[in-house]
Amino acid sequence: MRALHPRAPALVSAAALLAGLAGLAVAAEVRAAPAPTEDAPLSVPAAAEDENVGASCRTVVEGSSVTAHCQNPFPRTDRVRLHVECARWWDLDSDSAPVDVGPADYAQVSGRCWKEVRSAWITHEPAARGS
């Protein structure tokens, strides 16, 4: 009778383990697939009143400074905030205080980092009635 290689049992058990794991991965993918659902309804169009909200803003990044220029052509007041994300891990990201931009009004909001700016964006929120 021929003798087995000393590593043969280890290779056989490793192959069996890999085959078992491959089967588990396929089974996990099949189980994780979502069940078919009915067609989702299309989104309902927003009311005409909601369309007339939101100042038009553009951001300008110059070195470590960010300036947002916002103009509101709509008849309702828009509350804007500037968010600045800094590139360096030790540089603090910042969010400006909310600024109300009235109808046909203009606002300028600024922020900065110590070093480079990674990104900057504006968020909008309708101002409370009576503002």
Which features would summarize this protein structure in a list?
131 residues; alpha+beta; 4-stranded antiparallel sheet; 2 helices; 7 strands; elongated
Overview of the molecule:
The protein has 131 residues and is of the alpha+beta class. Helix content is 22%, strand content 36%. The protein is built from two helices and seven strands. The protein has helices at residues 8-32, 48-51; strands spanning 56-62, 65-72, 78-86, 94-95, 99-101, 105-112, 117-126. Strands 3, 4, 5 and 7 form a four-stranded antiparallel β-sheet that branches. A hairpin with a 2-residue loop joins strand 1 (56-62) and strand 2 (65-72).
Total helices: the number is 2
Q: What composes the largest sheet?
A: 4 strands, antiparallel
Strand proportion, as a percent range, falls in 35-45%
Gap from first CA to last CA: 95 Å
The secondary-structure element order is HHEEEEEEE
Tell me the radius of gyration: 29 Å
Unreliable segments of 5+ consecutive residues:
24-33, 40-48
Q: Describe the oligomeric state of these chains in a short phrase.
A: single chain
Task: Please report the total strand number as a whole number.
Answer: 7
**Fraction of residues in helices?**
10-25%
Mean pLDDT: 76
Secondary-structure class: alpha+beta
What is the approximate shape? Answer: elongated
